[in-house]
Amino acid sequence: MTSPRSTFAEESVLKQIAKMWIFIERFIPGFIFVSIFLVMLMEIFCRKFFTHSLSWSSEYSRYALVWVTFTGTAFVRRNDLHIKVDALYDYFNRRGWTKLGFAIDFAISILAILYWCVLVYFGWLLASRTSRIRASSMDISMFWLYIPTCIGGLLAGVVEIVDFIKLLSGKKRNAGAVARIEEAV
Questions:
Q1: How far from 101 is each of 13, 62, 104, CA to CA, in Å?
Q2: Does residue 76 contact residue 83 with C-beta atoms inside 8 Å?
Q3: Is-contact 120 154, C-beta < 8 A?
Q4: How far is it, in rounded angstroms, from Cα 68 to Cα 55?
Q5: Where are the alpha helices (H) located in the chain, listed in sequence order?
Q6: Residue 184 pLDDT class (50, 70, 90 cuts)
Q7: Is 134 helix (H, G, I), strand (E, B) or coil?
Q8: pLDDT digits (tens, 9 = 90+) for 12-40
Q9: Where are the domains of the chain?
Q10: Beta bridge partners of 134
Q11: Using 50, 70 and 90 to split pLDDT, how confident is the model at 99?
Q12: 175-179 contact pairs (CB < 8 A, 24+)
């Protein structure tokens, strides 16, 4: 039997882990995006005032944009900001067919978890197979171009699993960006 004190400590640790996880979801894409901005600003400055272009800036920006895209996926998924068509789902919920809405949520969650697992697996295969190939301007391993698929898939997969557990426990899933905007107005 667990004491109330240990349960409180466990909840506190879980909350700290959740806060750290959310910080990482926001920090990594934000930091990389700012670095793209600064590198391109430096490129403009060098080209304008020194009439010399940086050979690696555009390649860095392309690779960093891949990192922003995949590592930002978890943030977008957690906040339900991704592009989706939910007209059928909303139609069922308005009609009061919540069991059908639950079945749709259940199926979507299972498919999404499988998708993230496949993305992580094949992303790792691709990253490991291209580790010996070097980028032309920056001379870094192409592994660093393809590994964000694994990282982003892992982050988004964890978010999806947490959402799936919420669904099974009866808690409401993310309402969606449109629903939150409609509630605010």
A1: 33, 40, 5
A2: no
A3: yes
A4: 21
A5: 4-50, 57-71, 73-78, 87-94, 98-129, 143-169, 177-184
A6: very low
A7: strand
A8: 787 888 788 888 888 889 999 999 999 99
A9: 4-184
A10: 141
A11: confident
A12: 175/80, 176/80, 176/84, 176/86, 177/79, 177/80, 177/81
Look-up of token digits 């070097």: 134
Buried b (16+ CB within 10 A) or exposed e, 73-99: bbbbbbebeeeeeeeebeebeeeeeee
User: One-letter amino acid identity for 31?
Assistant: F
Q: Which of 43-52, 74-83, 138-147, 176-185 has the lowest mean pLDDT?
A: 176-185
Residue owning tokens 């391993």:
141
- For 141, the 3-state DSSP assignment is strand
For residue 172, report the phi and psi dihedrals to the nearest 5 degrees. -70, 135
Tokens of 108: 């979507």
Q: What is the pLDDT of residues 102-138, one digit of tens each?
A: 888 899 899 999 999 999 999 999 999 999 999 888 8
Q: Cα–Cα distance between 60 and 137 in angstroms, integer? A: 9
Query: How many whole angstroms separate alpha carbon 28 and alpha carbon 24?
Result: 6
